[in-house]
Amino acid sequence: MLGATQPLRYLALYRLLTLPRISQKRLLSSEALPKSNSLNALRVAVLYQAVDSPVIDGVRKLRKPGGYQDSGADIAFVLRSQCKINVVTPSSVLSPNEDAGWCFPDTVEGILNAIQRGATHLWANTILFASHPLQTSSLLEKHEDKIRVIGQPPLLVEKFDNKSFVNSRLRANGSFSMPREWTVSWQTGSKPFLKKQNLPFPIVAKPVRGRGSQGVKVCFSLDELDDHLQSLFRYSPTVMLEEYLSGEEATITVMPPVADMSNYRALPVVTRFNHENGVAPYNGVVAVTANSRALTQGEVEKDGRYNEASRQCERVAELMQATAPIRIDIRRFNQDSGSAFALFDINMKPVSLMRLAMSFLFEEDASD
After folding, report:
1. Which region among 167-176, 281-290, 330-339 has the lowest average model confidence (pLDDT)?
2. What is the reported pLDDT for 153?
3. Distance CA 280, CA 275 (A)
4. Distance separating alpha carbons of residues 254 and 59, to the nearest angstrom
5. φ, ψ for residue 364 (rounded to 5)?
6. Contact between 133 and 104 (Cβ < 8 Å)
7. Which of 12, 57, 125, 351 could bridge 72 with an S-S bond, Cβ 3.0-4.6 Å?
8. Is the pLDDT score of 205 beyond 70?
9. Helices (DSSP H) in the chain: which residue ranges?
10. CA separation for the pair 72, 157 (Å, rounded)
11. Model confidence, pTM
12. Which residues contact 42 (CB under 8 A, 6 or more apart)?
């Protein structure tokens, strides 16, 4: 287990993710917060992904090997050791060097096991969707008045996991900097059709529902694009084509409102580097600490584009009515130092890079 450091203490102390189990007719509200303000009253169980995502819009989002047990173990470890919060685990024999034993599977059986062991809050460190057991299982109905779920509402996640849908909505709003985009399907994405579109090369091709940089490729020619599309169409019948942004890449995590902070708040900007063929490598292969770092306040103040992007990201979170942190990937249009940033990827599950931003923020707070 790596990366079990202080940043999640910051998140836990804010208590900003405490939400009810979502039913089809129930709305989120501040009434869902527990009456006690004491963190000592919480008994948190962390869930990892053991339930495969269903086919949505013809695409099945592939499960990460291990189902996020690694980051789930980090969360559980930090809550227990740094935040002094009661953490319920499936095993009594735990090691900070091992992922196993810290988290419960997100199956009905795993969730009920966590509740039977005394959990009051379920931290859904997993991929959520409308038919997820947290949303649909009748066996959980008798517990829904006393159990709270930490995470995004499943219906919202399923809706906004479609990158093309999200980008189209943001583009229609008219107030966000976005790259140009085209959508092709296995029915329309033939080479003759692509040739007629007069596409700008290089261009990025990626699945509409993906995980990290899986399936993302910068294509430099029509032939290369056609070859990559044929490989993507085998599991994603719809593919996004996106203007390639050649400048600096960064990512911004946005926290939702809490009782004592009514606005959405961007965490420090995390800049990214050491790209492979123009794409940031998947964090399951290359650790984010090897290609990412939080910018200092001094660096941000020297370039107003960072704050400009942060304010845009906060407005995105507000527009989406996010109830948990989201992470937005941004990139400068070109390599000029004063180039504006474009928002190109909204992530509903921001664990890895969120930790870098919160770690830096926590260190700054501690030094004040």
Report:
1. 281-290
2. 86
3. 5
4. 27
5. -65, -45
6. no
7. 125
8. yes
9. 7-14, 69-81, 108-116, 133-136, 154-160, 163-173, 191-196, 222-232, 297-302, 304-320, 351-367
10. 19
11. 0.81
12. 34, 85, 86, 120, 121
Amino acid code (one letter) for 274: N
Positive or negative, the CA dihedral 246, 300, 167, 20 is: positive
Rounded to whole angstroms, the Cα distance separating 245 from 242 reads: 9
| CB crowding 209-228: b at 16 or more within 10 Å, else e | bbbbbebbbbbeeeebbbeb
Tell me which residue has tokens 């995105």. Answer: 316
Q: Which residue has the tokens 């707070």?
A: 365
Average pLDDT of the residues of the chain = 83
User: In the structure, what pLDDT confidence band is assigned to residue 282 with cuts at 50, 70 and 90?
Assistant: low
Classify residue 59 by burial, with Cβ atoms within 10 Å: 0-12, 13-18, 19+: buried
* Amino acid at site 119: A
Asked if 18 and 137 touch (Cβ cutoff 8 Å), the reply is no
* Burial (0-12, 13-18, 19+ Cβ within 10 Å), 205: buried
Instruction: Look up residue 235 and give its two tokens.
Output: 């599991």
φ, ψ for residue 123, nearest 5 deg: -90, 110
Q: How far is CA 329 from CA 49, 181, 241, 333, in A?
A: 23, 16, 16, 13
Check: CB of residue 122 under 8 Å from CB of residue 114.
Answer: yes
